[in-house]
Amino acid sequence: MHFLQLNALHFAYPDRGEVVRDVGLQLAPGEIHCLIGRSGCGKTTVLKLAAGLLTPQQGQVQLKGQTVLQPTSDMGFVFQSPTLLHWLSVLDNVLLPLSLHGTVTNARRAHGEQLLAQMGLAALRHDKPHQLSGGQQSRVALARALITQPAVLFLDEPFAALDAITREDLQRDFLALCQAQGTAVLFVTHDMSEAVYLADQVSLMHEGRIQAPLHIDLPRPRQTAMRYTPAFNALCEQLRHAMDATL
Fold first, then answer.
1. Where exactly are the structural domains of the chain?
2. Are 143 and 116 in contact (CB under 8 A)?
3. Which of 35, 90, 159, 246 allows an S-S link to 206, with CB 3.0 to 4.6 Å?
4. DSSP letter at 130?
C-alpha cells in the first residue's frame, strides 16, 4: 500500500527555472524515506511539494488516496530551526498545535508530558526555550510535531546544526518515537551516515531528479553499535559512490 505517493512532479521557481523534474516517490505506512543530495539539488522543494506547502506545476501528490492541495491535520513538520515561542514554557510549546485548535485536555497535557519524558526533558517542562541547549530545543520541536500523532512527518535537516554526539542521540530517540507511534517520515538530509541510520529507503537527488534509490536492508530497531558494522559502512560507501557519479 502506498500511503504517500508523488507522481511525476515538476516544479519551477520564476527566478531559478525548473528545480524538480519528473520526481516519483512512494512512502508506505510507518516507513522512513530520506532524500539526500548536494545543496540546490531540489530535495527541500520535493519535501514542500509532498507536504502541500508548494503546488506542483505538473504531476500529483496523494496522501491516503486523496490529492494533497495543502497541509493537513495528518501531517507534522520539523525544520532546521526549532522556532519555539520564547514566552511559552517547554510543555506549552509542545502543546501549541493542540491549543491553537481548542482546549488542551488533561489527557492531552499528560501525552505532552509523556513525550517530553521520552525525550529526556521531563525535568525541564516548565523552563523557557532560552534556558535550553540547541539539542534540547530540537527535542522540544520533535515532541511538538508528534503531539498531534500525525500519520506522516516531514523533516528538513532538523539536526544539521548540532554537534555529532547530540545528533546521534537525537536520531536514536527520534526513531524510537516514530516507531512507537507508527509515523511515516520523509526526511531531508545532506548527511550520508544519518540517511543510512534512519531510513528504510534513501533517494539520491541530482539536478531535480531522483538518480539512485537505495534500499537500506538493516535490522530494526537500529542500535548505535550498528554504525560501526561492515554492512553499515558498505551502504554508506555505496551512497558515496552514487553521489560521486553525479559530479
1. 1-21+31-68+166-247, 75-149
2. yes
3. 246
4. G
